[in-house]
Input
Amino acid sequence: MNKRNARLLSAMAGYDAGDVPRVQHFVKVHGFAAAIGRAEGLDERTLDVLEAAAIVHDIGIHAAERKHGSNAGGWQQVEGPPEARALLEGVGGFSPEEIDRICFLVGHHHTYEGVDGPDWRILLEADFLVNAHEDRLPAAAVRAARARIFRTESGLRLLDSIYGNATAAPAAFRPMRRFGQTLSEEEVREVLRAAKRGVLSVVGDDGRPYGVYLNPLYDEATGRLYFHGAKEGHKIDALRRDPRASFTVIDEGSHDASRPPEWALTFRSVVVFGRVEFVENQDEALEICRRLSRRFTQDEAAIEDEIRRAGARVLVFALVPEHVTGKRVHEA
Output
């Protein structure tokens, strides 16, 4: 670490004064980012920018909590860049171009698509290496992140070393029989990102299968699928007895001229197997409801009105993936 970033780290500790977990978090993320960046052979300027971004990457948390009552990643990305810019200018020694890039990284450290440089990629990897432990993510979430986030050899080695066998597929799930129809990992993510509806299957009364139609929110950072609904009912009773569940989605399908008949569609389906965890924190649950609502409307006033009206009665839960399959199917 150069002297400029050492001053920045000290200033960031002052910014987060008294908040020990958050100080510890950015120090650890910085350590991993610096180690991966050095191992990957980044030039000194890019490495310095990466280290600075790792130090201030979560600087938007306080403003997000103050303004929006939530520290969700999306709000951090909105509120973080102005806070980072002020701190960087106060510390001094950073060029306008460096400040712009650092602020860009702060504003995208929960964004996993369109990664345009090694500094962005390594920041995502370093943040996950710390979050996986702090958030006690299950092995399935680590496996999902390995496929979704990690691209550098150094980051992958660290992930596999730290989390051991977490990336190994569980033996309880059978392999897909017609493997030639298997979707790629990116196609699976694409289907889950686009899905607005699907069927959640649970172990219902007397062990009978019970499926219910729900709107999902796919969180790419963890691989989790979030749902909301009433606090009581068949589905909730079943999940409290047995948290095992699966969620099935299909895309809209398309016509393949090379595969008759002409009426038949070729579509992609994804099944996520896992266990359900209930979101106990009400603020977190309502923020998830906001994110889910924005998939269907951008009318923020209507969303807030609905939350005021029904928020106290809503229950939010996550399907934590243990195994995910995707296949391409022709109807005929």
Summary: The mean pLDDT is 89. The chain has two domains: 3-167, 180-330. The radius of gyration is 22 Å. The CA atoms of residues 229 and 315 lie 5 Å apart.
